[in-house]
Amino acid sequence: MPCYNTYRGTSNPQTMYPMYQAQAQAQYPTAGGPLAPSGTFIPGAPAKPPQSPPGMLPVEESFIENILRLNLGKMATLYMTYENNKEWNAKIFKGKIEAAGRDHIIVSDPTTGMRYLLLMVNLDYITFDEELKYTYPYR
Prior knowledge:
5-stranded antiparallel β-sheet, single chain, 24% strand, globular, alpha+beta, disordered N terminus
């Protein structure tokens, strides 16, 4: 048996590299629940994190895109700035929130029918003319 492939007389990867065993089990848990700090499974513990009730933001994720997703279809005014742009440094978009992702917002202008894909990196702030849905689960 070659020496580069042995650890304590075995070629089993879990015994060759015990420091990676807990990490591999944490990434790919099997039945029985999550790992305890010692690297052993906790019997009876849930394998998945708790889910938030419908209509509420995910646990500890009050990011802009999640707030916008709760308010799809509402009219908004988005204030954007574009650095190093000599033609227009700042621009205002008004429209209905169609979709929101981690790095973008899709807004449609109901008067023209134009849809805009706006990047979050350029977003300064958003105003709404109506009340927002925002339910954050406090612990």
